Amino acid sequence: MLKLLALVIAVAGLRLVVGRSADGSLTIELAHGAILGYRLSALLTAALAGAALGLAGLCMQVLLRNPLAAPSVLGVTSGASLGVSLAAVATANAWVAGSVVPAWLNMSIEAAAAVAGAIGALSLVWVIAVRRGGIDPISVVLAGVVLGAVLGAVAMGLQWALPPHSRADVSLWMMGRVPEVPSWPVVIVSAVAIATSLCAALGSSVAMDAAAAGENEARSMGVPMHSLRMRLLLAAGVLSGCAVALCGPIAFVGFVAPHLARGMVGPRARPLVVAAPLCGVIVLVGADACRLLVPTTQGRIPIGVVTACVGGLWFLRFIRRGREAWT
Amino acid sequence: MDVSGASLRVQDVTVGYDARAVAGPWSAEITPGEIVAIVGANGVGKSTLLKVLAGLLRPVCGVVSLGTRCVHSMSERQRSLVVAYVDQQPSMATRLSARAVIELGTWRGGAGVPDATSRVRGVMEELGIEGFQGVPWHELSEGQRHRVAVARALVQCTEGVLALDEPFAALDSTGSVLVARALRRRAHAGVIVLASAHDAGLARALASVVVRLGDGRAPAAGCNALAMGSAEVMLSPEAMTSATGVPHWGLGQVDGSGGVGPDWGRALG
């Protein structure tokens, strides 16, 4: 756990000192003034989104008894993006209609829509993949992947319907973005959501361990499976939605973080509940720092590109390692 | 909840899925210390009946009560104190070690068990698990997993009911004998042991009561008058001797489709 904290501090430090000067060359220096402010906000946003994704991934893996479960794998991220796109269309139309929508309200509506979309998508996956006698791990992943594609397509259709200026904005957002000027209401709500879920998960950590058993055995061990599932679903949905509202749909962080955490603190839920969000912070802030290292002529590459490439390859490796990884 | 000395009362219970009856109606009173084997061919509803008796599945109609409480109206936490259950194929999506899985039996919804550490150690010794206690669950063999799951239930079960679905199906003879002896010790201590078995050898050798689930046709010869509908209850000779006050544990006298080998009787002493 100390090792994890040290890593968190290390990537945070890296994010704060690495930058690019106006001529595009890499600089490593302790910034000050406004630059430091920007970097601190970006660090805070990325850290919160990473923590939310790490914890959301862990909750989903426990909920579905499946180590492949994660917000981006099962279409939950797409559900949240669809929510945001819907909200964007609605507010854009409201703006056209002449009413002035203040930015903070706009962002809050989008965040609420992201959370609603995430919970909706996860519930759908649950309904599709679960039948009497248990959860089929293959069905879960297939249902999630296809649902993600469908929801993503609907979101794309909505973006197409947006006025051109916001269309460009939204498609950039879809690549994942760590804002240097975050929406503070969303930041605060996310921080509260993470803290609440973390405490709740710590409180039911033994139940989370026991829930790895089949439905009947878990219940006979004293796990109130129905309420545990509702709480896990709610936590995973709210956290995924918050992450999307903060940084856009960023893939695979929620998958990688719990597995990294298992490698560091072992399989018990109690330390994992703390370690998974910390690993999420390390992965996302680390990815944010790393993308600064990629030389481009037009700013930094989107963070979603970095996490999807690295995390996706990790995912494939995980599958390649075979059956023992599934159980 | 004090259930010491309480019987498991089964009143007109019909079991099935989605309101479709599979077996029953059946009534019985199972007293502490009894070992009930539920036997029958594949697919006649043994596992379903076992889940109903363990409070995990509601019967289509009828009531199952332990002492004064209906097992289906208890919360999971309350039930975990008085009913322990082991699945036919215990599965865990986890990398916890065998020992950590067994220790989950000490949780009981947060209520805990007395002397948890020594209990866990004792049960691991009883079932011969010390040798692989540190191996993660996903690396255990099928038989080892089953032994671990039974051990978890033994740790959990301090009184009341211990329900096991096909406890011997996945086990080798050593494991079967260890588990069978452990079940018999629990029965002697006043626990009601319920076990289903499709191939009834060991379960029958062990049981004081054999419940044979048929396919709804006429009961086989020798079945007790308790039988109703398609659930047939047959009292084995052992049960009769124990009813006369002379406890006598199972050899191969129970005849019929079960095919009891004399080996089991000798192995169990």
Summarize the entry for a quick read:
Chain A has helices at residues 2-17, 33-64, 76-96, 103-129, 137-160, 164-174, 184-203, 205-210, 215-220, 225-247, 253-265, 269-291, 303-320; strands at 18-20, 26-28, 130-131, 134-135. Chain A has 327 residues and is mainly alpha-helical.
Q: Going across the biggest sheet of chain B, name each strand in turn.
A: 6-7-8-3-9-10
Helix content of chain A: over 70%
Average pLDDT rating of chain B: 80
Going across the major beta sheet of chain A, what is the strand order? 1-2
List low-pLDDT spans of chain B.
Answer: 216-262
Instruction: Please describe the biggest sheet of chain A, giving its number of strands, its sense, and whether it closes into a barrel.
Output: 2 strands, antiparallel
The percent range for helix content of chain B is 25-40%
Given as residue ranges, the uncertain stretches of chain A (5+ residues, pLDDT < 50) are none
Structural class of chain B: alpha/beta
Judged by helices, strands and strand pairing, the structural class of chain A is mainly alpha
Overall shape of chain A: globular
Main β sheet profile of chain B: 6 strands, mixed
Distance from N terminus to C terminus of chain B (CA atoms, Å) equals: 35 Å
If helices are DSSP runs of H or I spanning 4 or more residues, what is the number of helices of chain B? 9
The strand count of chain B comes to 10
| CA-based gyration radius of chain B | 18 Å
The sequence of SSEs of chain A as H and E is HEEHHHEEHHHHHHHHH
H-E order of chain B: EEEHEEHEHHHEHEHEEHH
